[in-house]
């Protein structure tokens, strides 16, 4: 197939591992952000005419084969592409899985009990309603905690432990989850995502 002939020549090429760190933001037919895709997928969508519109500066340039005149074909991948299908992720009030990185970023790396800044490698995900007591693995029931506060709270609710949450945990919508995923996001993509994201500030009392 034609899309297999493209070779990445833009920024972000890692000659050692042959991986490209630049990702393309994929939208559904209505313009809702769905996911980030790699250049292989983006090229396939473009060459198979699945992209109905695009926007943003060129994020990646690919080179193909040469014709009889020695001219080499080029494929420019825009930062944002909209494809001709719909996704139901925007209809899911409670995502099936809560991601550790997203929770850490949502809570700005702060312990939601004492406000201490916690490095990612040391933070603990606390079940506000303990898991042993039926607390689910959802964004509303998980928060960033330091080890000291997590040990102090033990198998209790915040009220039982006399520990007040600094902010109410919320469910980041799909656009917010993409921002909070920890990926490198280029300017055009970030501007677009911010128009849909339900991000909230953590530093407040409730």
UniProtKB/TrEMBL annotation:
Q: List residues of the HNH nuclease domain.
A: 98-151
Report the domain of life of the source organism.
Answer: Bacteria
Q: Name one Pfam family in it.
A: HNH_5
Q: Which UniProt keywords apply?
A: Endonuclease, Hydrolase, Nuclease
Nuclease: is it a keyword of this entry?
yes
One GO term in the molecular function aspect is: endonuclease activity
Hydrolase listed as a keyword:
yes
Query: What is the name of the protein in this document?
Result: Restriction endonuclease
Q: Which species is listed as the source?
A: Pseudohalioglobus lutimaris
